[in-house]
Amino acid sequence: MQHRYDVLVIGAGGAGLMAALYAAKGNVSVACISKLYPTRSHTGAAQGGIGAALGNVAEDHWEWHMFDTVKGGDYLTDQDAAEVFAKDIIDAVYELEHMGLPFSRTPEGRIAQRKFGGHTREFGKAAVERSCYAKDRTGHMILQTLYQQNVKEGTKFFNEFHVTDLLIEDGRCRGVVAYELSTGEIHTFHAKAVILAAGGYGRIFKITSNALTLTGDLMSIYYRKGLPLEDMEFYQFHPTGLAKLGILVTEGIRGEGGILRNDSGERFMERYAPTIKDLAPRDIVSRSIISEIREGRGVGRDKDAVNIDLTHLPREVIEGKLAEITDLARTYLGMDPVKDLVPVQPTAHYAMGGIPTDLNGLCLSDGNGGSIEGLYAAGEQACVSLHGANRLGTNSLGDLVVFGRRAGIYAAQYARQVEFPDLPDDPQSGTKDMFDGLRNGSGKENPALIRKEMQESMMNNVGIFRNGPDMERQVEILKELKSRYQNVNVGDPSLRYNSELIEVMELGFMLDCAEAMTASALNRTESRGAHDRADYHTRDDINWLKHTMAYKDLDRPGNVLIGYKDVALKGFTRAFEPKARVY
Amino acid sequence: MTQTQHELTGIPAAAQQGLAMMHIKVKILRFDPEKDRKAHWETYTMDAQAGDRVLDVINEVKWYHDQSLTFRRSCMHGICGSDAMLINGRNRLACKTLVRDVVKDGGTITVEPIRGLKVEKDLLVDMEPFFDSYKAIMPYFINESPAPAAERIQSEEEAERMAQSSNCILCACCTTSCPIFWVNGSYLGPASIVQAHRFIFDSRDQATQQRLNIMNQNTGVWRCRTAYNCTEACPRDIPITQLIEEVKRAVMYQQS
Amino acid sequence: MIRARTFIDAKQQSHSNAELNWWIFMRISGLILVFLVLGHIYMTFIQVSESDATFTAVVGKLANPAWKFYDWLILALALMHGTNGARYSIEDYIRTRPNRAWVKGVFYTVVALVFAFGTIGLFSI
Amino acid sequence: MYKGREGQWAFLLHRLSGIAILAYLLIHVFSIGSFIFGERFYMAIHETYDWPIFRIGLVFITAGVVYHAFNGLRIIVMDFTGAGVAYQRQMWYAVMALTVISGLYAAWTLLPRLLGGY
Ligand SMILES: Cc1cc2nc3c(=O)[nH]c(=O)nc-3n(C[C@H](O)[C@H](O)[C@H](O)COP(=O)(O)OP(=O)(O)OC[C@H]3O[C@@H](n4cnc5c(N)ncnc54)[C@H](O)[C@@H]3O)c2cc1C
Ligand code: HEM
Ligand code: SF4
Ligand code: F3S
Ligand code: FES
């Protein structure tokens, strides 16, 4: 079946919904394709808040926010993006409020704000209340509110449609191909402009806060076309996931005063970040926790976790502002944060890297300014690069609304100016070939085992602490897994609701993301932000103050080509010199 | 109904908190529209850890035994609302239900699709009617007066008024546990009423009147017979029946 | 205002307070019926022991206009209350419009006949 | 069967008892009213009520009325007071206790009739 829309949005998380809303305001026909019902998107899992310098609780300025973002990203952040972001987000948050988002309030009735890791006043002097929140379910409220607004605007949704291919020819995007879960039918969507907002790929790791559906589909599809993925080596491990489960314990818990303690009850963050202690950025806290564990000061049966201590906080705070996480601890661990210490360990959380874009969301085809006409990206799956080498908490939700909005506006603007491009001759051939390939292998390999091996090996070899030999081994492991994947068994022959075919396809996408990540990480011989190498333990601004662009080598499968892109070291009005990053 | 038994062996259960291992049976109501005319039970025997989620167990069946088993899931921690199922006779989210809470060592977990919506395949049902009734209550903020430059002011108490209703994840556990909804899908259902409550009691919203009109119908709040199944099923602990009663009273006071 | 196509029924009734009024009526009539019905049972079961429902006993009691009114009130309220209650069930369990229409038709006719019969009976003594 | 708790059974019993009472009322009006056709006809109808099934039925109807009446009050309390919802379970157990007691009482007073004739 064939459909035709001026603007197509892929993904219905925060970024996709925001893009769809703003594209629709541009007087073009818009449709949103999502493999999940929109309210199931993982934006709903975000807890802590959305950072904006509103100054409702304490004095704050966008310049401070910009500085924190750049410093938090270990100076790999593009400063023009950071400046646009820090200014725009203030309006964007008010706009969310005008859409009805039920923010928590200050006693004066304004949007409530709290402290969050890495957010400071006066360029690093002390922690500041910048995170606007709706209890500890900010993402849930954003997702619901944006979906509600789309219902209001009458946005056309194609739910449970899995995008399987992007139609790009001669540097111009012409539409997408999608597989409809309920019928097994393949649809061609013809479009003037396409906005990608399909979220992250945390499921390549064993312990992750990400949903089972976050499998990097669109990144991989982009990458398979020989187009670059930027900064894939930078993957954030959130310091506090519930032990063994990986379910996120929001940073807001530390913002409200929660304290990390090791086996002897010591507040160990005092040693690693004397100024802001438990509120240090995530990469630093994660590494500190892992160091404690490695040095034998962990808690739990396997001594592979540390405790988070809330017991000194008033019960109203724990059950009110932190209701969500209290519920999670009670449900999954049978522990009550009011009186028990909760064991946590770092969990794979957020992809700083992804599809490279410019400030308007336009997708880049190389590191020298080339782009794909009519193709935009936003959200976790895109890399503007706002987050550089390490994302600050609350900046992702901000990224979704600021750059989701921009992508929507510019895509609509573009679509108004151009005619529909021609579709390629046989638009569905790529998808059909992929499905035939999956179904026609020898069928010996169980996809679940391949996935499990990938997740475990990625966790061990390309996790929080990295080194050359481990990653070299991982390159080989991935090659082997990929060749086994050629013979994967799709155990469900049916046409309708074939969830197995989807899972197998997603596994293929994840293997590509893992491949790009491992190659990029192996290539970067320094430690910066979330990328920490035992064999190159310092930051090297002379050689490495640049973005990695990883290309799939289309001629030699399994091989990755690496290019680079400059870092924007200046914003439009402000610029921050790279400095050592201490807190 | 036909019954089939399967033995799953040698497969490691999803590792969790190091709680005791249990030997359990999982009995799943299967239905394949391309093969079956009627649903049938299949039973799988396996080892699981006490702290495993029921969703881990179902995943185990799918990944290592029968790949055709079909159900929805995503977040794995009770926030996305995908995996409402009828587990041991009650509606729950499979990812928020621990094995040890529903079964003893050697016992059986039964898993069926939620009721009142058409079963498409195995545990997956057609959610369209559910979202149709969601859309019928105008589930969006309406305030036509020009927005101020900053936020609209709202007191802490007024914000707290929405704390429960806005917590809903649209999982349908409630609506599909309601005895009225089972027999008649024209009832908007508790989930939609909770959503309406979210806006009716938002001090900033201006469409209270219209929403109360929608609620003031045969298909709205008056259809609720206070059976409390919804309240008991809600994984987000929303006191749904209480909210429905508040809406009933709001309609009454507004009309009188 | 109502977008979803599955709610044609709802749309037609969206500007009427009928359901609200019935809802209130069920509660008020229920409150009154508690006294009337329990009183009735109390008197027939407990005060008048055993052989109560004989012809003469009934006719004798109903000769008193106060009892006439008392019984008629029970009759009227209980029938209205019960009929509306039964309508709830009909609307829940009978889903197609035509079926619902004829079941309701037959049911209301029976109730009306019984009500007329009971009223005539009461006042013909 | 869905494993609902008190509320579900309260609803189900309320509906069943309501319909049963209505059915009883319709028959009751007809049979009492039938005296206008004369004593013979009236007594003829009432003799059929001597069948054990009707007598046992009477016990259930009594219990049903008591249940419906008090559960009706429970519903009214829930509908019109904010706190009613919180105590619905306790209230239902009270309703059930009253129902069982009145059912037993009815059975006891009706016992002679149940055992045979007037
Ligand atoms: C547990 C948790 C807590 C977090 N807390 C915070 C926080 O407090 N503050 C903060 O700023 N950030 C937080 N984050 C990060 C932030 O929530 C995410 O980065 C962000 O929500 C991603 O949004 P998105 O719109 O890009 O993607 P998602 O919300 O993940 O949505 C992806 C969408 O793409 C669709 N999709 C995917 N693949 C396909 C395909 N092949 N075809 C069609 N559709 C597809 C999906 O259906 C979905 O609708 C948190 C993240 C997690 C996991
Ligand atoms: C004795 C005092 C009575 C009280 C306090 C009472 C109360 C109520 C109430 C409050 C309801 C509404 C239930 C709801 O909306 O969930 C109701 C329903 C009903 N009543 Fe009564 N009632 C009484 C007597 C009767 C009698 C005598 C009859 C029969 C003639 C009857 C038949 C019904 C029926 C059929 C329903 C509908 C049940 C349903 O759909 O859930 N009631 N009653
Ligand atoms: S009210 Fe509760 S049970 Fe109902 S849809 Fe919302 S979260 Fe699910
Ligand atoms: S189960 Fe149904 S009847 Fe009312 S209280 Fe809940 S909606
Ligand atoms: S998988 Fe998301 S709620 Fe269960």
UniProtKB/TrEMBL annotation, chain A:
Q: Look up the domain of life of the source.
A: Bacteria
Entry keyword Transport = yes
Cofactors: FAD
UniProt keywords (A-Z) are: Electron transport, FAD, Flavoprotein, Membrane, Oxidoreductase, Transport, Tricarboxylic acid cycle
Task: Enumerate the transmembrane spans.
Answer: none
Question: Which PROSITE patterns does the annotation name?
Answer: FRD_SDH_FAD_BINDING
This protein's pathway reads: Carbohydrate metabolism; tricarboxylic acid cycle; fumarate from succinate (bacterial route): step 1/1
According to the UniProt entry, its GO molecular function terms are: electron transfer activity; flavin adenine dinucleotide binding; succinate dehydrogenase (quinone) activity
Q: Tell me where in this chain the PTM Tele-8alpha-FAD histidine is found.
A: H42
Residues covered by the FAD-dependent oxidoreductase 2 FAD-binding domain: 6-397
The answer to keyword Membrane applying to this record is yes
Against InterPro entries, the record matches this protein to: FAD-dep_OxRdtase_2_FAD-bd, FAD/NAD-bd_sf, FRD_SDH_FAD_BS, Fum_R/Succ_DH_flav-like_C_sf, Fum_Rdtase/Succ_DH_flav-like_C, SdhA/FrdA/AprA, Succ_DH/fumarate_Rdtase_cat_sf, Succ_DH_flav_su_fwd
Q: Name one Pfam family in it.
A: Succ_DH_flav_C
Task: Indicate the residues that form the catalytic site.
Answer: R282 (proton acceptor)
User: What chemistry does it catalyse, as a reaction equation?
Assistant: a quinone + succinate = fumarate + a quinol
Q: Which SUPFAM superfamilies match?
A: FAD/NAD(P)-binding domain, Succinate dehydrogenase/fumarate reductase flavoprotein C-terminal domain, Succinate dehydrogenase/fumarate reductase flavoprotein, catalytic domain
UniProt: substrate binding residues: H238, T250, H349, R391
Q: How is the cofactor bound?
A: Flavinylated by SdhE, about 5% flavinylation occurs in the absence of SdhE.
**What is the topology of this protein in the membrane according to its UniProt annotation?**
Peripheral membrane protein
The subcellular localization recorded is:
Membrane
One GO cellular-component annotation of the UniProt record comes to: plasma membrane
Protein EC: 1.3.5.1
Q: Where does FAD bind?
A: 11-16, 34-49, 217, 380, 396-397
Domain named Fumarate reductase/succinate dehydrogenase flavoprotein-like C-terminal is located at: 451-583
Family that this chain belongs to:
Belongs to the FAD-dependent oxidoreductase 2 family. FRD/SDH subfamily.
Output this protein's name: Succinate dehydrogenase flavoprotein subunit
Q: Which organism is it from?
A: Deinococcus humi
**Organismal lineage:** Bacteria, Thermotogati, Deinococcota, Deinococci, Deinococcales
UniProtKB/TrEMBL annotation, chain B:
Q: Which SUPFAM superfamilies match?
A: 2Fe-2S ferredoxin-like, alpha-helical ferredoxin
Question: Which cofactors does the annotated protein need, by name?
Answer: [4Fe-4S] cluster; [3Fe-4S] cluster; [2Fe-2S] cluster
Pfam families from the entry? Fer2_3, Fer4_8
- What does the UniProt keyword field contain? 2Fe-2S, 3Fe-4S, 4Fe-4S, Iron, Iron-sulfur, Metal-binding, Oxidoreductase, Tricarboxylic acid cycle
Looking up InterPro entries in the UniProt record yields: 2Fe-2S_ferredoxin-like_sf, 2Fe-2S_ferredoxin-type, 4Fe4S_Fe-S-bd, 4Fe4S_Fe_S_CS, Beta-grasp_dom_sf, Helical_ferredxn, SDH/FRD_Iron-Sulfur, Succ_DH/fum_Rdtase_Fe-S
Any GO BP = respiratory electron transport chain
What metabolic or biological pathway is this protein involved in?
Carbohydrate metabolism; tricarboxylic acid cycle
Any one Gene Ontology molecular-function term assigned to this protein's record:
2 iron, 2 sulfur cluster binding
> What NCBIfam families does the database record attribute to this sequence?
dhsB, PRK05950.1
Which family does the similarity line name?
A: Belongs to the succinate dehydrogenase/fumarate reductase iron-sulfur protein family.
* Protein name according to UniProt: succinate dehydrogenase
Native species: Deinococcus humi
UniProtKB/TrEMBL annotation, chain C:
Protein's UniProt name: Succinate dehydrogenase
Entry's transmembrane regions: 20-42, 69-90, 102-123
Species assigned in the record: Deinococcus radiopugnans ATCC 19172
Q: Which SUPFAM superfamilies match?
A: Fumarate reductase respiratory complex transmembrane subunits
Taxonomic lineage of this organism?
Bacteria, Thermotogati, Deinococcota, Deinococci, Deinococcales
List keywords of the entry alphabetically: Heme, Iron, Membrane, Metal-binding, Transmembrane, Transmembrane helix
Please give the Pfam families that the UniProt record associates with this protein.
Sdh_cyt
Its main subcellular localisation, reduced to a broad class, is membrane
Compartment(s): Membrane
Q: Looking at the UniProt record for this protein, which Gene Ontology cellular component terms does it annotate, in alphabetical order?
A: membrane
GO: which molecular function terms?
A: metal ion binding
TrEMBL record, chain D:
Write down the Pfam families for this protein, in alphabetical order.
Sdh_cyt
Q: How is the cofactor bound?
A: The heme is bound between the two transmembrane subunits.
What InterPro entries does the annotation carry? SdhC_prok (IPR039023), SQR/QFR_C/D (IPR034804), Succ_DH_cytb556 (IPR014314), SuccDH_FuR_B_TM-su (IPR000701)
| Chief site of localization | membrane
Residue numbers binding heme: H68
The protein's UniProt keywords, in alphabetical order, are: Heme, Iron, Membrane, Metal-binding, Transmembrane, Transmembrane helix
Mind naming one GO cellular-component term on file for this protein? membrane
Q: Name one GO biological process term.
A: tricarboxylic acid cycle
Q: Which SUPFAM superfamilies match?
A: Fumarate reductase respiratory complex transmembrane subunits (SSF81343)
Intracellular or extracellular location(s): Membrane
What cofactor(s) does the depicted protein rely on? heme
Q: Where are the transmembrane segments?
A: 12-37, 49-70, 91-111
GO MF annotations, alphabetized = electron transfer activity; metal ion binding
Q: Which NCBIfam families match?
A: succ_dehyd_cytB
* UniProt cross-references to PANTHER family, sorted A to Z: SUCCINATE DEHYDROGENASE 2 MEMBRANE SUBUNIT SDHC, SUCCINATE DEHYDROGENASE HYDROPHOBIC MEMBRANE ANCHOR SUBUNIT
Spell out the family assignment given in the record's similarity comment: Belongs to the cytochrome b560 family.
The protein's name is Succinate dehydrogenase / fumarate reductase cytochrome b subunit
